[in-house]
Design goal:
There is one protein chain. By secondary structure, the protein is of the alpha+beta class. It has a domain at about 515-615: Immunoglobulin-like (Sandwich), CATH 2.60.40. Helix content is about 40%, strand content about 10%. It contains 19 helices and 14 strands. The strands form four sheets. Strands 6-7-8-13-10 form a five-stranded antiparallel β-sheet. A hairpin with a 4-residue loop joins β4 (about 370) and β5. The structure holds 2-acetamido-2-deoxy-beta-D-glucopyranose (3 copies). One 2-acetamido-2-deoxy-beta-D-glucopyranose (NAG) binds near residues 522, 549, 551 and 592. One 2-acetamido-2-deoxy-beta-D-glucopyranose binds near residues 522, 549, 554, 555 and 590. Pfam families: CBM49 (PF09478), Glyco_hydro_9 (PF00759). Its EC number is 3.2.1.4. Keywords: Carbohydrate metabolism, Cellulose degradation, Glycoprotein, Glycosidase, Hydrolase, Polysaccharide degradation, Secreted, Signal.
Amino acid sequence: MERSFTHCLVLAIFLGLFALEATAGASFNYGDAMEKSLMFFEAQRSGKLPVNQRVKWRGDSGLRDGLLQGVDLVGGYYDAGDHVKFGLPMAFTVTMLSWGAIDYRKEITGLNQMGDTLAAIKWGTDYFIKAHTEPDVLWGQVGDGDSDHYCWERAEDMTTPRNAYKLDPNHPGSDLAGETAAAMAAASMAFKLYNSSYSSLLLAHGKQLFSFADRFRGQYDDSIQCARQYYTSSGYSDELLWAAAWLFRATGDEYYLKYVVDNAVSMGGTGWAVKEFSWDNKYAGVQILLSKVLMEGRGGAYASTLKKYQAKADFFACACLQKNDGYNVPLTPGGLVYLHEWNNMQYASSAAFLLAVYSDYLSAENAVLKCPDAQVQPYELLNFAKSQADYILGKNPKSMSYLVGYGQKYPVHAHHRGSSIASVAVLHSTVGCVEGFESWYHRPEANPNVIYGGLVGGPDKNDGFSDDRSNYEQTEPTLSGGAPLVGLFSKLQSLIGTSGSHSQKSPAPHHQNTPIIYADVPVEFIHFITNTWTIGRTTYYRHKVIIKNKSQKPITDLKLAIENLSGTLWGLNPCQEKNTYELPQWMKVLQPGSQSSFVYVQGGPQAKVSVLSYH
Ligand SMILES: *[C@@H]1O[C@H](CO)[C@@H](O)[C@H](O)[C@H]1NC(C)=O
Ligand SMILES: *[C@@H]1O[C@H](CO)[C@@H](O)[C@H](O)[C@H]1NC(C)=O
Ligand SMILES: *[C@@H]1O[C@H](CO)[C@@H](O)[C@H](O)[C@H]1NC(C)=O
């Protein structure tokens, strides 16, 4: 094994391909993981849900956010398993989703996911536009952690105070305003090809927010003190540099490049060597973005300072790769980045994303990474990114996926209010603040709603994990942890795709449309293949099956038999009996002519779907 792997590796380098291909045989379905990671953002939506909302167990919520303050703050994202809209991690999330959409545009488009990716970004940016009511005013939080955490309710039932908190010249917050500026600048790039007027609007907000952040300096949790216990900022210098770096990337305006250079020392950009990249600490991100500028030969008179930035970018990358003269990022025995007890997985996903993009920047310039312990090729950075992604998806001592809904075994007790309480579509009566704890939080049963794509906090330093709802350090999914995955998984999926590129033009039907009509049953199935890719020798297909109601008569309890299913299926509930499925609770009735659908992914022939029974 070892030897043949090394062999392939050398060959892969020789051919100028990535070493990842050598391991492709044992690969994960990153495309599926990517789609699920986007679904998570739908589950976290606050406000009025659109008609094309796919996560049906959610309903409208937070429709009066901002009302008491006389400002429309409806929309945006709930942070995690709770319902506070915390500005800082939400903005970081939008920045990271956008970075993925920019750098991996081709990959995401290839997976047919650009529409949903942009929708995830826009759900955040539309909210930021509302929250940025004046050039120097930014509403930075709705709800507060203390009262929110006192209750275990669905977002749709929320009874807790929805106070809103703002930044203004007398209550500055350069970290929060800076991160929001970065998010707007990055999102403006993501939208540029798709909607130039929206893109310009975002950029205008980004520029204004940056000057607000820069002119009125301060730490946001001094101004919004109730954020402190939850998202304490360690400083705002990194966000100012980060915002300027993004604005330079979005505009090419030398003003922003000069800013990061002039402030390189005073704001720690060339001084801080870090091992963490997160909602709080952006230095490594700044350093990698600026390395790209330098390597592309756009540094001009600023090149010498940019080199110092790159030295710190290299520190971060070498530390992840364990080649940094002992100053390395801690790993669990199973190989996962391990920085904090609480929600550690987010640091692994963000480090993986950074190394994936840095690997691309280096290879675009035929550059190598010079670490204290070794000289490193770009593909090794990508292999590190893959190692973290694979750990997340199941290659770990527990052999479980930490991405909810992916694979065979994943956490079923995520610490998440909405996921753990029956959907409003099923249980119409209100679930009260305390009742939620009594009837739902403390239940031993699995959550009734699978929160697809939620990246939970993950294992401890010894790769141990306890799937327990009250173990929030390990089982709570967060926005910040999920955001880097969208770009990361698309990149990894595209590498698998290219290894099977010889068969890319195979006659696999892409939009095959085969209606299967059963004469005397009330529904019709329409089978599509919506995507296909090859891993090793197996070609996988993403099948979508539409169930159309062609009946005029009332029918209930529709049960479907699905045979020869070898892959993952979503959109139906499994019943106790083998190979038997029913419509999700909230979809029990299909109006005449209306339709529902489910999706599954597998290699080989398609599954056989038939109606088993109905009343
Ligand atoms: C582009 O964005 C604007 C908002 O700035 C929106 O009104 C318009 O509908 C969008 N156009 C398209 C084609 O989505
Ligand atoms: C199909 O539509 C009819 C007419 O509204 C309804 O009575 C029936 O329950 C629907 N079938 C399913 C499977 O929901
Ligand atoms: C399909 O499933 C049936 C039983 O459910 C089994 O007998 C048959 O061999 C399977 N066919 C394939 C191609 O896997």
